[in-house]
Amino acid sequence: MSFRIYNQTIVVLNSTKAVHDLLNNRSQLYSDRPRSWMLHDLCGRRNTVFNIPATDERHRQYRALLRTGINQRATLSYAPLLESELIDFVQRLEDSPASYQGHIRRNAAAVIMRVAYGYTISGQDDFFVRTAEEASQISGRAMAPGRWLVNYFPLLRFVPSWFPGAGFQRQAVIWRKELDALSGTPHKWVRDQMAAGTDKDCFTTRLLRPSNGKIVTANEEDIIKWASGGLYAGAADTTFSALTSFVLLMAVHPDVQERARSEIIEIDGVSQLPSVSDLPKFVYLAAVLKEVLRSAPVAPLALPHQVIEGDLYEGYSIPKHATVMANVWSIMHDEQMYPDPYSFDPTRFIADDTGNAVQPDPRAYAFGFGRRGCPGSHFAETSMLLIMAGTLSRFKISPSVKETAGGLPPLEYTSGLTSHIKPFDIDIVPLK
Ligand code: HEM
């Protein structure tokens, strides 16, 4: 289907076939991002990994750094870090189970800050985390659909800031200054640590001090700065959403929870926490993660793409610069692909003796498409599986008595760029 906001055409792809044919197979045409003149140009955020046009050489350079910096092999090199953050997470959950959402958020932020900058966050109100959150809030406001006319009538960007009605120009000056300061802070911190000899091994230092001894130019350093900047923005909310949905789904599916726990205990016993090297052995838990990503999609509309030229597809004409969105939610709940799509059933993804085919892997849709597909998917999977395994090996999760008194309410979902199941009251109790 398609609709217009002012002069902007938005095309929504609802079928797997259309998404695959256009966003994957024609990715050289469909991998740009819609231009937000307010955010990208007036506020100076064009160069972020998320916003930069795929036609810009920088996008290829960012992706190359991210590919090597957080691919499967690199992810394994962060195992000690992930495992030490798991110990911290489990301790916090034991101390204050009711604050589980805060602990998940903290874990996601702590892990990615250590990976990106070798920075250990302090309390809930950590300066760097606050900085990153502020940047993401400003970006959200600057991108709000329909809010800024300049996004639809780009000539308005030449209106001087003193002109009546040009409040957007004055707002952009304030936001640009704030965003510049915010995005430079962690990189500068790493530089200072390197100068003092107190830096920790991380994505940024590995690139600034390459093992082949090559001197990094100022332009290369700028590319590294923006690539690292994409890590927090990509990881924090998404991991939080998926793990929050996981905990709530476990509360209402005790049978699934028990089966996953048995698998974990069979492999790790009852006394030790799971390690990253154990993760490939967890067949059922891996299926649980797939089912979480399918039944509660983290990014229900992925991120918008833009087509760089007019295109024809199955009799439809898609105009140049149309915004093209994949309806990931509808794909994940398509009965043809996932029979009984509203039931939570990880065995969809496990081959059985009856010869039933395993259902399609939802990771092909959960992490986006073509040249913009999520570069952090391996890292995300490893870090989430570890938290899932650690949580189930130590705690039992159930709906609170208050919730179950009148029968369980139907699951609801938050809306937004990222989404998760709306929290209801649960109990998280340490296993005896
Ligand atoms: C549950 C976890 C995650 C999910 C579901 C997820 C999903 C996505 C999606 C749907 C996109 C947009 C793809 C598109 O436009 O087609 C994306 C992009 C991106 N993700 Fe993830 N992501 C997750 C975790 C992570 C992590 C852990 C990182 C970093 C360590 C990360 C880094 C990025 C970056 C940098 C982009 C921008 C890519 C670009 O525009 O070229 N993500 N992710």
Automatic annotation (TrEMBL):
Example of a GO MF term: oxidoreductase activity, acting on paired donors, with incorporation or reduction of molecular oxygen
Pathway entry: Secondary metabolite biosynthesis
Tree of life domain: Eukaryota
Keyword Heme: yes
Keywords (A to Z) from UniProt: Heme, Iron, Metal-binding, Monooxygenase, Oxidoreductase
CDD domains the record matches: CYP64-like
Gene3D superfamilies: Cytochrome P450
Any Pfam family matching the protein: p450
Signal peptide: none
Binding-site positions, heme: 374
Reported cofactor(s): heme
Keyword Nucleus on entry: no
Annotated InterPro entries: Cyt_P450, Cyt_P450_CS, Cyt_P450_E_grp-I, Cyt_P450_sf, Cytochrome_P450_fung
SUPFAM superfamilies given in the database record: Cytochrome P450
Family statement drawn from the similarity comment of this UniProt entry: Belongs to the cytochrome P450 family.
Designated name of the protein: Cytochrome P450
Species of the source: Heliocybe sulcata
Lineage of origin: Eukaryota, Fungi, Dikarya, Basidiomycota, Agaricomycotina
